[in-house]
Structure formats: C-alpha cells, structure tokens
C-alpha cells in the first residue's frame, strides 16, 4: 500500500514549502554534497541576474533590467532547472579559480603564450596558428566576466535552446508592457529572430577550446600538464571538454564534483601521467563545500 505524506484534502503546497522539500530531497539523495553555502547561493544568483540582463539587452535595450529581475525573482525564474545547472557550474568554476589564486582580476589576453608551445613568439613576430587558437580561447574566457570582474555566462556559451527560451520569456514579459503599441510589439518578433541568428554565429568556450585542442596534436599532453601546473583551469576544462566531446560547463561541473581517484581515468584522453595531476587533485580537495558525486564514505 502506498501512502501519501499529505492528506487528500490538503491545500496545494506553497512555493516556499515546495522549494524546501526539493532541497531536502536533493540532500537525502546525496548527503555528502551538503547544502549550498551563502557564497554559492550569492554567486549563482549573481550569475543568473547578469545573464538575464545581458539577454534582455540583446532583445531590447529599452527594457528595464531591474524591474524584470525583481519580478522574476519574486515569481520564479523561467526555465529555472536549466539555469540552475548553467549558473551553478559558472559560479563553482569561479570559486575554484579564486581559491587557486589564478586571478584576482579578469585574465589578461595572451598572458601565457608559452603554454601553447615552448617557443613563444618574439615581440613583433606574427603569432603562430597555435598561439592564435590560444588567444581565441582567452578572449572567449574574458567574455565570461563583467567590467568589475564578476563571473557571467557569456551568451555565446549558452546552448541555443536555453537562449531561445530566455529570449521568448523576456519577449513575453516585454509584450505585456508594450501591448498597447502595435509597432513596438511587432518589433519584438524580429528582435528575437535577429538575436538568435547573432548568437548562432558567436564563438564561445566550447568552440574555441575545440579549435585549440585540434591544433595541438602531439603537444596536447605537455600543454595540458603545463595548464594544470599553472592552475589554468579554463584551459584544462576546455581541453577535457573537447576530448570528451562535451559542453564546457558540463565538463566544468564534472571536474568539480569528481572523486580524486576518478580523475586519472577522466583525463586519460589528455595523455597525462599521475604526477601531472597532483596540482589539480590538491586544488580540488582544498575547495570548500565542494559537491562530490561519491557518498561511499557516509555509508
């Protein structure tokens, strides 16, 4: 016999209670993961807010982003399940980089040309194809920060479906404001189409990382080992994502949640030996409140 926790005639669950129950279910499913810290919540929420503002600006610069965010924050964000994974991955990667001392400001462009190969180009010499690919990766990474150095999800890094859903939700919100103006209402449809076409032609971390991975060839193990030694996590994530043919944010969260003893097999396609992984293992172990996928220690 299956019993419900709630009586048949009970009122529908409130949004707050539903949220608490989902959090409890998540915790019971993975006790080792614990709960989000205030820092994790704040970072993830900030990433989500900046993403919504950036997408809204592409749709219509006249949209009041403060009002839009306030209403959505109060009533719940659309496609919240999609955004949760994307924003949490970006926030956790940012915490990881901060903890590692990799950067206190957005990374300078082509600050480490020697990570591409041992012979860095002399001043005034043209960049090699490898250096150009690394430069493109750095530029894509730089787009993932705002002017103050806060982490953002670049629109180019969003999967097309999530971007389309966000655009349509913002357009619907905007339509309620300008429904009395038929001309401006009609412009929204065209703006959505233009924004989708623009995003499709942009280069994000996945595309730039794959181009860099493809051009490295036999130099891949050395470059990956150098990136790990320098705590250059974006390069490590991008190369691993390309090797596994996975999205950048998906590989980021996989690396951040993997157990130490699984790192070697996860990064095997990069041709790394165990000694090269030591700085990566140490950095991940030191990350506070890291969500791990294995709960055997609690059994």
Describe what you observe in this structure.
The chain has helices at residues 15-29, 38-59, 65-75, 80-100, 129-142, 160-178, 182-200, 205-216, 220-229, 233-244, 248-257, 263-266, 274-286. It is globular, with a radius of gyration of 22 Å. It contains 13 helices and no strands. It has 299 residues and is mostly helical. The protein has one domain (37-298). Helix 2 (38-59) packs across helix 4 (80-100), helix 2 packs across helix 6 and helix 6 packs antiparallel against helix 7.
**Gap between N and C termini:** 28 Å
Report the mean per-residue pLDDT as an integer: 84
* Most strands sheet: none
Q: How many discrete domains?
A: 1
Query: Given the C-alpha coordinates, what overall shape results?
Result: globular
Quick overview of this protein structure:
The chain is an all-alpha fold and 299 residues long. The protein has helices at 15-29, 38-59, 65-75, 80-100, 129-142, 160-178, 182-200, 205-216, 220-229, 233-244, 248-257, 263-266, 274-286.
Keywords:
mainly alpha, 299 residues
Q: How are the SSEs placed, and which strands pair?
A:
Elements: H1 15-29, H2 38-59, H3 65-75, H4 80-100, H5 129-142, H6 160-178, H7 182-200, H8 205-216, H9 220-229, H10 233-244, H11 248-257, H12 263-266, H13 274-286
Helix pairs in contact: 2-3, 2-4, 2-6, 4-11, 5-8, 6-7, 8-10, 9-13, 10-11
């Amino acid at each position: 016999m299956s019993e419900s926790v709630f009586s048949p005639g009970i009122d529908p669950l409130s949004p707050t209670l539903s949220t608490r129950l989902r959090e409890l279910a998540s915790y019971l499913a993975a006790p080792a993961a614990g709960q989000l810290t205030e820092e994790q919540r704040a970072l993830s929420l900030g990433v989500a807010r900046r993403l919504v503002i950036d997408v809204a600006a592409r749709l219509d610069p006249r949209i009041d982003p403060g009002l839009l965010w306030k209403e959505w924050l109060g009533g719940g964000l659309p496609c919240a399940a999609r955004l949760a994974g994307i924003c949490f991955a970006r926030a956790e990667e940012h915490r990881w980089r901060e903890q590692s001392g990799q950067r206190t400001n957005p990374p300078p462009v082509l600050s480490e040309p020697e990570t591409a190969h041992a012979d860095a180009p002399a001043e005034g010499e043209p960049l090699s194809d490898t250096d150009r690919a690394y430069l493109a990766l750095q530029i894509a990474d730089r787009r993932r920060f705002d002017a103050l150095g806060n982490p953002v999800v670049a629109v180019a890094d969003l999967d097309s479906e999530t971007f389309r859903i966000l655009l349509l939700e913002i357009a619907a919100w905007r339509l309620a404001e300008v429904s009395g103006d038929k001309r401006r209402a009609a412009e929204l449809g065209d703006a959505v189409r233009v924004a989708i076409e623009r995003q499709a032609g942009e280069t994000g971390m996945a595309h730039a990382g794959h181009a860099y991975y493809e051009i490295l060839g036999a130099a891949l193990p050395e470059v990956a080992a150098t990136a790990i030694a320098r705590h250059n996590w974006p390069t490590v994530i991008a190369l691993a994502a390309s090797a596994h043919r996975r999205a950048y944010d998906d590989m980021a969260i996989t690396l951040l949640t993997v157990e130490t003893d699984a790192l070697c097999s996860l990064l095997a396609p990069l041709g790394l030996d165990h000694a090269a992984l030591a700085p990566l293992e140490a950095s991940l172990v030191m990350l506070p409140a890291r969500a791990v996928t294995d709960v055997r220690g609690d059994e």
